[in-house]
Amino acid sequence: MERFLPPAPIPKPLVIVTPLVESHIQAAIYCSKKHDMQIRVRSGGHDYEGLSYISYEAPFVIVDLVNFQSITIDVENSTAWVQVGATLGQLYYTIAQKSPTLGFSAGVCPTVGVGGHFSGGGYGMMSRNYGIAADNIIDARLIDVNGRILDRKSMGEDLFWAIRGGGGASFGVIIAWHIKLLQVPETVTVFTVNRTLEQNATKIVHRWQYVSGKIDEKLLLRLFLRRANSSQDGKETVQASFVTLYLGGVDTLLPLMEQSFPELGLARSDCIEMSWIDSILYFASLSGEPLDVLLNRTSSVSGTYFKGKSDYVTEPISETGLESIWKRFLEYPEEMNEMQFSPYGGRLSEISESATPFPHRAGTLYSIHYGVVWTEAGKSALNRHIRGIRRFYSFMTPYVTKNPRSAYLNYRDLDVGVNNKGKTTSYEQASIWGLKYYGINFKRLVHVKTKVDPGNFFRNEQSIPPL
C-alpha cells in the first residue's frame, strides 16, 4: 500500500521468508524466537493497516505464504482444502472449474488472500444466505508457537473457535483451511440500480434500512453512496447504487422486489441472469473478462493512497439524519469518497454471537465501510485525508453503535486502539479496541491466547494479548 512505502518512517523487515514447505515455516518460528524477532505473516497482503507486512517495532521478519496456494476440491463431499496463500479469486475459479453448482461465501475482491480474510470473518455477497466464510470452516492446519503442526482435533475446540473470526495472526501461522462448499443455483441474477437525491434517493435509502435485513435471504442488497454530477446546474449530488445478488432467476426476483421494495422501482431491464462464477466477475468490476483473470494476484490500485474505517448500525437512521450525512458528504469531499452499506439479517442473525469470535449477528441492521482514496503523494496530502476521514467518522457517532462502537476486523483500523510496543499490553488497554471488534467474545479470545501463546510471541499492533 502506497502510504506505507518510503519515505514513511516505518522499519523495514530484516528478511522476507517465502517458505516452500511447512518445515520452512517451523524454522522461521524457531529462529525468530531465538533471536527475539517478531513475525508478520502475509497471505495476500490486503491488511488495511499493513500489519501483514509492516511493523512499527523492529526487528521483524515477514513470512510470506505466497507459495502455499494449493486448492483441492472434493465435489462428492462438497468440501475443499485451501492453502492460505491462495486468493479468493483463485478459490472461486478452482471451484467453478469443478462444478457449476458449488460456490463459497466470502468477499468480493479477488486478490484478497484467504488466510487473513477467513480468519477475520469473511463477509460477502452470499452471507445473508450462508453466513460468513468463518461459519463454513470445518477444519484447519496451524503451526503453533512451539512449531507443532495442529489440526482441529489436536488444537482443540477453543483454538479452532478463536481462529475463525478472531484473527489468525494472534495464535500461530495458519497453513490451510478445510471449508464446506455451498450449493449455488445454475442461474443467479444481478443488478445495479442508481438513484440520485433528485431521484428520491433519501426516501429509498431510508426504506432500504427496514427492508434489506428482512427480505428473502437469497437476496443481498448492497448499497454504495458516492458523489456524482447532478442533473441540476452541474452541481454535485449523492448517488445511491444498489448492487445486488439474488440466488435465483429474474422471474422470481421481480415479484419479490415488487412486494418488498417497490420504492426502488426495479425493472426487468435492470436485471442480468448469469452463472454464479460470472457474478464474481460482475461484482469485481471484471465483467466480460476471461475467467482466468481471477487468477491474477496483483491488485489494480497501485499509485493510489487509501484509508478505510467501519461501523455497525442497529437502529435505522432517520431521513433527517440521512440528509445531514449527505450535506456533510458533499461539503467536505476530502473526508470521504465512498460509503458502503452491507445488509445483515438472514443466516447471519440465526447464528449465535458467540458461535465464532465475529459478534455482529442478530440485531445488526448493516455495516458501514468508509473509504477515502487519493493520488497526491506527500505527507501533507496524507495528513489532510487521514484527518478528513477521522472527522467524518466522528460526525457519524450519533448514528451508529455505542458502548462499544463496533468495527469489523477485516477493515482493520488502528485508530480504534493499539497495543503497547513490546510484549506487555494489559487486558484493559487491549479492551479499548478488542471490544469493538469482538464484543462479548474478546474475553474468551484472551483466555485462548493465554493458553496457546503465553509469551505473546505472535503479536502485532492489534493482536490478542495474553493475561
Give the arrangement of secondary structure elements:
Elements: E1 15-17, H1 22-34, E2 38-42, E3 60-64, E4 71-74, E5 79-83, H2 88-98, E6 102-103, H3 114-119, H4 127-130, E7 137-143, E8 149-150, H5 152-155, H6 157-162, E9 173-180, E10 182-183, E11 188-196, H7 201-211, E12 219-229, E13 236-246, H8 250-260, E14 271-274, H9 276-283, E15 305-313, H10 319-331, E16 338-343, H11 347-350, E17 366-374, H12 379-395, H13 427-438, H14 442-452
Parallel strand pairs: 1-3, 2-3
Antiparallel strand pairs: 4-5, 5-9, 6-10, 7-8, 7-9, 11-13, 11-14, 12-13, 12-16, 15-17, 16-17
Question: Span from first to last CA?
Answer: 33 Å
Q: Give the fraction of residues assigned to helices.
A: 25-40%
Number of helices: 14
Question: How many DSSP-defined strands?
Answer: 17
What this model shows, in words?
- By secondary structure, the protein is α+β, with helices and mostly antiparallel strands.
- The protein is built from 14 helices and 17 strands.
- The protein has helices at residues 22-34, 88-98, 114-119, 127-130, 152-155, 157-162, 201-211, 250-260, 276-283, 319-331, 347-350, 379-395, 427-438, 442-452; strands at 15-17, 38-42, 60-64, 71-74, 79-83, 102-103, 137-143, 149-150, 173-180, 182-183, 188-196, 219-229, 236-246, 271-274, 305-313, 338-343, 366-374.
- The protein has a 7-stranded antiparallel β-sheet with strand order 14-11-13-12-16-17-15. It has a 5-stranded antiparallel β-sheet with strand order 4-5-9-7-8. Strands 1-3-2 form a 3-stranded parallel β-sheet, with helices on one face.
- The longest helix has 17 residues, at 379-395.
